[in-house]
Amino acid sequence: MPETVDTVYANVVNRNPGEPEFHQAVREVLESIGPALARHPEYADARIIERICEPERQIIFRVPWEDDQGRIRVNRGFRVEFNSALGPFKGGLRFHPSVYLGIVKFLGFEQIFKNALTGLPIGGGKGGADFDPKGCSDREVMRFCQSFMTELYRHIGAQTDVPAGDIGVGGREIGYLFGQYKRITNRYESGVLTGKGLAYGGAQVRREATGYGAVFFAEELLKQTGDSLEGKRVVVSGSGNVAIYAIEKVHQLGGRVVACSDSDGYVLDEAGIDLELLRELKEERRVRLDNYVRHVPHAVAVSGRTVWEVPCDLALPCATQNEIGGAEAAALVAGGCIAVVEGANMPTTPEAVRILAGAGVKFAPGKAANAGGVAVSAMEMAQNASRDSWTFAQSEKRLWETMRDIHARCWATAEEYGLPGDYVAGANINGFRRVAEAMLEHGLV
Ligand SMILES: NC(=O)C1=CN([C@@H]2O[C@H](COP(=O)(O)OP(=O)(O)OC[C@H]3O[C@@H](n4cnc5c(N)ncnc54)[C@H](OP(=O)(O)O)[C@@H]3O)[C@@H](O)[C@H]2O)C=CC1
Ligand SMILES: O=C(O)CCC(=O)C(=O)O
């Protein structure tokens, strides 16, 4: 009996109980790809969607480490190797106390289609741990990373599975992870991790890529109606890697980011967020965002409320999943927002997406808009493999071209399937078709 979307979804829910984020990510893709399944009955015959929804491999492991007081701590580590039809598993590692298997699976599932959309040869995977780096010393973070890699190293490799950063994993953590991998394996395998420091095989623009890429996508989206970022009032959530470089690029392209946030609240600075100060607070001192107002007296810190209550033309959610629900979407509509472009992974709930669509707000899903990060990671792999190193300008140009291509693919696919302007359908159908075609050619594996 050929599979149907409804039966596959019901099976996913039954086989993966207690994983609502994973169910949500699967549902969003399955709801979009109906038109492609109708045109290609061979996908159902080969049970492609059932196979895509089942990870190729899931690894769960103990991560014991010692804190600065000499106490033993135990965390849980994960790597979900979801789909390798297009290339080695590729996707970040998240260190956050909320991490559990369902979060890693939702992220890994999204990564399959995102990576396909880049047009580059990378499969999808994701990993992480329920470790909270907040408040830890550098030494504690190092010991945690070393213990994490002491198990992970046997599962990864430049041709097998190539992790990178995500929430709580930036240049510092990638450095410690790489050092331990090199020590255990006695191999200088640059391509085993991306997001590395520039001193040891990292790529120019990888640090900036996700935030810059999301803003390039926003510029392309606005261009469709003859508009641009020039003069736009923008609100960004988060104040981490993606948020910081999204703010930088908005300012470079003539917009003004008036608010950003962290998990405690947000800061409103009508003069435009001072990026140098933000980087010092978040990248160097690693302190809470409300410290911003000590240095900028005209700015306001608001705790315990959503940044989406600040009126804006463009919203760039760059923090975490499901941060824009129905109430936040309604606030954005009331505040005059014309477009929401996701820098984070799945930050907008299905209810919020419906509210935005009903109000005519343009919406770009993360798997298209935030693909710049993983695209530049794939470029880092290419540079490592050829022992080459591109300039900043060259790398930024490649990123910009990649985002323009992703936008064009989403746009053209949505048109082709009779859903003009629907970036969710365009992204899901285009990514799905590329993976499905490769899976068909590989036979039953
Ligand atoms: N790094 C990358 O290259 C890519 C990242 N992404 C996605 O972008 C998003 C941000 O990642 P990144 O910038 O790397 O992570 P960071 O750890 O650098 O920053 C995360 C930011 O989001 C905030 N945040 C996290 N959880 C919550 C929460 N529950 N409520 C409110 N704020 C929260 C953090 O605040 P606080 O410090 O208070 O926790 C912090 O400001 C994630 O969804 C990630 O999956 C997508 C593609 C690539
Ligand atoms: O750069 C990478 O490999 C992964 C980036 C990532 O985790 C993501 O796109 O969500």
Description:
It is a single chain. The protein has 445 residues and is of the alpha/beta class. Among the domains are: 57-188, 3-Layer(aba) Sandwich (Rossmann fold), CATH 3.40.50.10860; 208-369, NAD(P)-binding Rossmann-like Domain (Rossmann fold). The chain contains 18 helices and 12 strands. The chain has helices at 5-15, 20-32, 34-39, 41-45, 48-52, 101-117, 138-152, 171-185, 206-223, 241-252, 275-284, 292-295, 326-334, 350-358, 366-369, 372-385, 392-416, 423-442, and strands at residues 57-66, 72-83, 89-95, 124-129, 161-164, 233-237, 256-262, 265-268, 300-303, 314-317, 339-341, 362-364. The strands form 2 sheets. A 7-stranded mixed beta sheet has the order 9-8-7-6-10-11-12, sandwiched between helices. Strand 11, helix 14 and strand 12 form a beta-alpha-beta unit. The longest helix is centred in the C-terminal third of the chain and has 25 residues, at 392-416. It is globular. The two termini are 19 Å apart. It binds NADPH dihydro-nicotinamide-adenine-dinucleotide phosphate (NDP) and 2-oxoglutaric acid (AKG). The site of NADPH dihydro-nicotinamide-adenine-dinucleotide phosphate (NDP) has 24 residues, from helix 10.
Topology diagram in text:
Layout: H1 5-15, H2 20-32, H3 34-39, H4 41-45, H5 48-52, E1 57-66, E2 72-83, E3 89-95, H6 101-117, E4 124-129, H7 138-152, E5 161-164, H8 171-185, H9 206-223, E6 233-237, H10 241-252, E7 256-262, E8 265-268, H11 275-284, H12 292-295, E9 300-303, E10 314-317, H13 326-334, E11 339-341, H14 350-358, E12 362-364, H15 366-369, H16 372-385, H17 392-416, H18 423-442
Parallel strand pairs: 3-4, 3-5, 6-7, 6-10, 10-11, 11-12
Antiparallel strand pairs: 1-2, 2-4, 7-8, 8-9
The structure holds NADPH dihydro-nicotinamide-adenine-dinucleotide phosphate and 2-oxoglutaric acid.
